[in-house]
Amino acid sequence: MLKHNLLDWDRTLVWHAFTQMAEYEPFVIERAEGCVLVDIDGNEYIDGVSSLWCNIHGHRHPRIDAAVREQLEQVAHVTNLGASNPTTIRLAKRLVDIAPPGLNHLFFSDDGATAVEVAVKMAFQYWRQCPDPRPEKTCYVALGEAYHGDTIGSVSVGGVERFHAMFRPLLFETLRVPAPDSYRRPPNVAPDELCRHHLAELEKVLAEHHRRIAALVIEPLVQGAAGMIMHPPGYLHGVRELTRKYDTLLIADEVAVGFGRTGKMFACEHEEVVPDLLCLAKGLTGGYLPMAATLATDEIWNAFLGDYSEGKTFYHGHTYGGNPLGAAAALATLDVFEQERTLEKMPAKIARLEEHLARIARLPHVGDVRQRGLIAAVELVQDAATKEPFPWAEKRGQRVCDFARTQGVWLRPLGNVIVIMPPLAITLEQLDKIMEAVEKGIPAATA
Q1: Taking the CA atoms of the chain, what radius of gyration do you get in angstroms?
Q2: Segment holding 120, helix H or strand E
Q3: CB under 8 Å, gap of 24 or more: what pairs does 314-321 form?
Q4: What is the DSSP letter of 232?
Q5: What is the DSSP string of 401-425?
Q6: Are 328 and 67 in contact (CB under 8 A)?
Q7: What digits encode the pLDDT tens for the residues 391-444?
Q8: Contact (Cβ atoms closer than 8 angstroms) between residue 340 and residue 57
Q9: Among 2, 208, 396, 421, which one is most buried in terms of CB atoms within 10 A?
Q10: Three-state DSSP class for 140?
Q11: Is the dihedral of CA 406, 410, 415, 421 positive or negative?
Q12: What percent of the residues of the chain are helix, what percent strand, and what percent coil, each to the nearest 5?
């Protein structure tokens, strides 16, 4: 097939996500190996964003490849509507064993948005079927600038104005509390007061509205699509305490921060928090296949048990939920974590990333650098002293990423925030190359 045909069809037939198609210039990846992508011209790029934050152990990992091939010799798809398969059952047991204690039941779906959608619906139905029914609990609490996916339910609890404002007439009620942004703090709030300030703001909302709140939804520690907003230490733990105090379920959306990204398998572990519902996706299959899971406590599970005639069944499902190919990839991904001691090797990489960020922080027009594990962000601003942002339309972050591509590094920004989120398998040398491309690209993009 001729290259120009592929480029033309990609430009005119494929409608790309979060992409203005009038401006799109095709970028076609033909193959990959480890942490390196190769385009149709043979050019190589270090995958600096883990193919949208989901690739963990690198592309074409021998163990994951072999697991998918082996599963193909058995069965490629089995519905989980009243049926199952051994691979998916084993994955469910494995996930329950490694998840925060008490999350003993698991519902499979397709991706992060569906995992959140499942949790939101479970919370709603739970309050109608629990031992002390509270049918008035119909609304949700979420953070400002939250992102939980693009289905109607997940957009309803989302709060990124640029993405979600168009769809507001379609959405259900959500109470919004300010994001505890460690960089853009409220006036007269010192860094060591930030956590306490935002927990007090949350408590005001819960105290007033808890009788009608079904659940609070949160991205633990880091709000991804908001621009990698980092929460202050102790905030997540405080949220868990307040939700218990005010009889509100806690939904933890670990789609982006789960599976080692923050230095622990799950972000909630950093503050010893066990949510009522835990949403997982992205890294679950190592970035190989679509699969998501929503984990629930015994209390929630039990509220859905009963005679068929009682109508307590959770009437929700996905054609490919619990797909055995995805389950095989996920089991192999967890095996690699253990066999290659992935989490044990992260501290050196985290420290190297921190070194680069400290140097980049001194560049003109860098307002903030922030990091949690192997998640990092560099925020570009027009004026570092006032934190005045560059106009969105100037695409300063994209300019840095365009420059990085000329250096053999693939990055994708969030507005004027440059995101660095490489596979956990990244080498120190590859990490150096990513950060050097960012450091050289910032002056080029802000001159």
Answers
A1: 22
A2: helix 112-129
A3: 314/107, 314/121, 314/122, 314/125, 316/107, 316/118, 316/121, 317/80, 317/81, 318/108, 318/109, 318/110, 318/114, 319/79, 320/77, 320/110, 320/290, 321/80, 321/107, 321/108, 321/109, 321/110
A4: P
A5: HHHHHHTTEE---BTTEEEE---TT
A6: yes
A7: 999 999 999 999 999 999 999 999 999 999 999 999 999 999 999 999 999 999
A8: yes
A9: 421
A10: strand
A11: negative
A12: 45, 15, 40
Whole-angstrom Cα distance, residue 52 to residue 19? 14
DSSP state of 371: E
Place of tokens 């397709």: 110
Q: What whole-number distance in Å separates Cα of residue 412 and Cα of residue 229?
A: 16
The span from the CA of 405 to the CA of 12, in Å, is 23
pLDDT digits (tens, 9 = 90+) for 224-283: 999 999 999 999 999 999 999 999 999 999 999 999 999 999 999 999 999 999 999 999
Domains of the chain: 3-57+341-446 (3.90.1150.10), 66-338 (3.40.640.10)
Running DSSP on this structure, what letter comes out for residue 372?
Answer: E
Q: Token pair of 298, please?
A: 């015994």
Beta carbons within 10 angstroms of residue 288's beta carbon: 25
Q: What are phi and psi of 36, to 5 degrees?
A: -120, 130
Exposure class string for 232-261: b at 16+ Cβ within 10 A, else e: beebbbbbbebbeebebbbbbbbbbbbbbb
Q: In angstroms, rounded to a whole number, what is the distance separating the alpha carbons of residues 203 and 374?
A: 31
Strands in 292-296's sheet, in edge-to-edge order, are 105-109, 292-296, 277-280, 249-253, 213-218, 139-143, 174-177
Provide the token pair at 256.
């982006």
Backbone angles phi, psi at 122, to 5 degrees: -60, -45
Looking at the whole model, is its pTM more than 0.90?
yes
